[in-house]
Amino acid sequence: MRLLELDKVCAGYGDLRVLFDIDMHIDQGEVVALVGSNGAGKTTALRTISGEIKITSGSIKFMGSDLAAIPAYQRAIMGVSHIPQGRGLLGSLSITDNLILGSYTKRTKARRGELMESVFEIFPILKERKHLPAETLSGGQQQMLAIGRAMMMEPDLLILDEPSLGLAPIVVDEVFRILRALKEKGTSMLIIEQNLVKALQIADRGYVLETGHVVLADKSEALIDNAEVRKAYLGVV
Questions:
Q1: What percent of the chain has pLDDT over 90?
Q2: What is the value of pTM for the model shown?
């Protein structure tokens, strides 16, 4: 089943065009990685999908519904959950309260306790510290909280922008272990990640962006083996 589809999408900031005729799709249960250098338009693409930025032309469809006129909060209710760079947590609020903020729809409110226990089962450290302010957590624990809050929405599509940014290598491994577990449960994901090897290892497919254009799309294994991708983005020949 086609979950998300971008067709000739153009977008940007005011008069600054950043994305040019982007074609991309994600199928149900699929994990897709966006690959590209800084400034290629990856974060803009994610913000366009979640509704933070309006498209100037083209179309975005989610489960067959046209998203062009649908605001960001409504897209979240529809099942699009976006974890931005910096995680977007409210540091002065408790871990529990941050999780509660992820379950504000009618459907998830009714199952809030069940969903929270599911999050605590995956992240026991959050349960141990559930009454503490989110700002007391380490960087890795804050990323776990951000993922947990997104899970409270029971998303059909989980969007992650640099989930390992600023984390120690051992914590990065733990974050990707969690993402693999979510993949095994059938969660569809769109990931931007500075550690391209890890991103492509977990992804089914990938798109390479350069200056706002999709220049290559292929299965992850093929991208890892592609000599140009290895040289430009993985630092190996």
A1: 61
A2: 0.90
